[in-house]
Specification:
Elements (H helix, E strand, L loop, with lengths): L2 H23 L7 E5 L5 H9 L4 E4 L2 H10 L7 E4 L8 H7 L2 E5 L2 H14 L3 E8 L9 E2 L3 H11 L2 E7 L8 H16 L7 E3 L6 H6 L4 E4 L1 H4 L8
Parallel strand pairs: 1-2, 1-9, 2-3, 3-4, 4-5, 5-6, 5-7, 7-8
């Protein structure tokens, strides 16, 4: 089986899982976006997935993503997400290629991204990365600090808050984590009407996330296969 056939089969299986999960939850399939996590995989895989209809792709390393996005400028409808932990000194570089940063977890990072976006003359969509269990050493803002960070983002004028994201902690039942994130986003919407996105669920737990209201599932392994050890 060649790579194109492999990815087509994988995508069909993932789409079937999403459709069944939506049906079980009484939701429309259109309510859930499939974000293809293409980190460590070559630009050629993105081209194949784009040809199969996907438009949203996620990277977690600025250096790798910058090269890959540069190779794929001809995919005019492709939308790129930064999903990895991001240092402030990478803000200017990330703004060059990313359409959305899904991992904003501090005031200082938000300010750096706003400054970089302003200098480039663009607005940047962002998600708050929330640490549901409060262990911010793994990335994410504590739930208690969400309101402050959301306010900084909204007041910047250069960032648009689109919702929140989390990775279910290994020490917590995924259902609890997903439900907690939905509660966070519900609270955000009262003061930030653009913050409607709930990014939760990956290859192993997307059904659970969809049942709790996720509007975006981030799928890498189920779509592209086991993670490559080195970048192409």
């Amino acid at each position: 089986m060649n790579r194109a056939e492999e990815l087509k089969e994988n995508l069909a299986e993932v789409e079937e899982r999403i459709a069944k999960a939506c049906e079980a939850a009484g939701r429309d399939r259109d309510e859930v976006m499939l974000l293809a996590v293409t980190k460590t995989w070559p630009a050629s895989d993105v081209e194949i997935l784009y040809g199969l209809g996907l438009r949203h792709f996620a990277e977690n390393r600025d250096q790798e993503a910058a090269v890959k996005v540069g190779q794929l400028r001809h995919l005019e409808e492709a939308r790129w997400h930064m999903v990895g932990r991001l240092q402030r000194n990478k803000a200017k570089s990330v703004v060059e290629w990313a359409d959305q940063v899904d991992s904003v977890d501090s005031v200082r990072l938000a300010e750096a991204l706003a400054k970089a976006a302003h200098a480039k003359g663009k607005t940047l969509d962002v998600l708050l990365q929330v640490s549901i269990d409060g262990d911010t050493s793994r990335g994410g803002v504590a739930v208690a600090d969400v309101a402050e960070l959301a306010g900084v983002i909204t007041r910047s004028g250069d960032l648009i808050l689109r919702g929140a994201m989390t990775v279910a902690p290994r020490t917590m039942n995924p259902s609890q984590a997903f439900q907690a994130l939905v509660s966070v986003v519900s609270g955000l919407r009262d003061h930030h009407p653009t913050a409607i996105g709930v990014s939760a669920g990956m290859s192993g737990d997307l059904e659970d996330a969809i049942s709790h209201g996720s509007t975006c599932v981030r799928v890498g392994t189920a779509l592209l296969g086991g993670r490559r050890l080195t970048s192409p």
